[in-house]
Amino acid sequence: MYSSVDTLWVLLGAVLVFFMQAGFAMVETGFTRAKNSGNIIMKNLMDFSLGTIVFYIIGFGLMFGTGKFIGTPDFFVQNDYSSSYPTFAFLIFQTVFCATAATIVSGAMAERTKFSSYCIYSIIISALIYPISGHWIWGGGWLAEMGFHDFAGSTAVHMVGGVAALVGAKLLGPRIGKFSEEGKAKAIPGHSLTLGALGVFILWFCWFGFNGGSTVSLTGDDTILSTAKIFITTNLAAAVAATTTMCVTWIKYKKPDVSMTLNGALAGLVGITAGCDAVSPLGAIIIGILSGIAVVYSIEFVENKLKIDDPVGAFSVHGVCGALGTILTGFLAVDGGLLYGGGASLLITQIIGVAAVIAWVAITMAIVFTVIKKTVGLRVSAKEEIAGLDLEEHGLDNAYADFMPIVTGAGTEIDVEEEGLPVEAKEKAVKVVDKRDAKSTFTKIVILTKRSKFPDLKKALNDIEVTGLTLTNVMGCGMQKGVTELYRGVPVDMTLLPKIKVEVVVSKVPVKTVVETVKNTLYTGHYGDGKMFIYNVDNVIKVRTGEEGYAALQED
């Protein structure tokens, strides 16, 4: 007889695992270029949506071998741990796990994959590939009968997604500009480490539902104690792996690498997922250390030796660390592990299971991607890739609204309210009249400097009565030799630093006064003080009144 507490616990776990979709979307978006952000969001949305449908119709039955219509209210999944709650809770819990496996591939194939082809892939992996290997492990299949231990899915979920990601990225080919003519990897930094970090924290948070919810019960002291232990081992592995990756990159690259360390946290989470219920806190620490090391060297190996372009490190995080964590469970499981006197039986079973799933996914996904490549096509054209998939695949100028023009469906610009003034008030605005005063001369001064200097600069300009200015945040570098920047261990071609660009047009205030004021304000004697560019201006026109020349620069 099922417990309502058990059902609620499973549903809570399902909600947390579902929210991992947001985490993956942010990680993948942040680690890639802005021109592909909308495309990545769309892929994460649709692999869950399409996967839900086909897993409901086909995948769930294949995975658990029910042979019954899954909507029957009194049907209970018959396996060794799920007889205490109804099918509906179990169905949604397994659906979100399936979606996690599918979405892993998106990051490895980002920035050059056809959207239609990705949708086809999502349907196939959710309907067939993931459910069949999942049946072997969780549905009472041959690996389950052998005693294969994968509590929450290091192999069943993450390694499946990771191996599929590697196969897809290999057949797809690298992004344009990723490798030089000599085959040397070139860095293509993601556009927002902030988004990447947000995604990692979301995933870390949701992993407590991923692993903890896999107890599928919260009834009885033993189960509650086991769940609490799983929370501890999960958190320890992630924290230790992140710290380890930070230290490794600090030693290798002379500075701690941010994006690699974020991957390190995910590597620890993936690694501990198989044995989170079976290992001790010390075992979790060991898994975290080894996962944190493995992810760095795996990312370098895939990129520099295999020449495969995986923008987010999906295979290294999910494939390599998924396999590593599963095998380490054979060593570190308190009950039956090799290092705890249990002999080699569990370890051998773990190795067999990992090898079998790798072979299954690699072969089937190679067939799937090859067929897609030969029929509808797997990759966008070079022109589309350079322009960005947001524009070419979805009609977005940019996924960030601040940079998008407001247009109608026909592409015609439309008017919008500005500062509370409705469109119909335009007819009441000031009439444009010719008040030209072209006798004065005007000079435009453009100032490039550090962001931190803007408050002082603004005050200094205000003090000499230069009050009209335009401020832009820009990226750039001077002609002096900059410090070599590394992104995931690969040198970045040019170091671009955040700067501000201040533009002023002066007439009344002498140019010499402005120049001397700016120099006195910005000067430190070190690189980065900035530069000034001075231009002659033919005329100035105030659009609202029609005033030109000197009068256009004056307040009403």
Overall description:
The longest helix is centred in the middle third of the chain and has 33 residues, at 221-253. This protein has 16 helices and 6 strands. β3 (486-487) and β4 form a beta hairpin. The protein starts with a helix and ends in a 19-residue tail after the last strand. Helix content is 54%, strand content 6%. With 556 residues, the protein is of the alpha+beta class. Strands 2-5-1-6 form a 4-stranded antiparallel sheet, with helices on one face. The protein has 2 domains: 4-394, Ammonium transporter fold, CATH 1.10.3430; 439-538, Alpha-Beta Plaits, CATH 3.30.70.
Fold topology:
Elements: H1 4-30, H2 37-64, H3 87-108, H4 115-138, H5 142-146, H6 154-172, H7 193-212, H8 221-253, H9 258-273, H10 281-304, H11 314-332, H12 345-374, H13 382-387, H14 389-394, E1 442-449, H15 454-463, E2 470-476, E3 486-487, E4 490-491, E5 497-506, H16 511-522, E6 531-537
Helix pairs in contact: 1-2, 1-3, 1-7, 2-3, 2-4, 3-4, 3-6, 4-12, 6-11, 6-12, 7-8, 7-9, 8-9, 8-10, 9-10, 9-11, 10-11, 11-12, 15-16
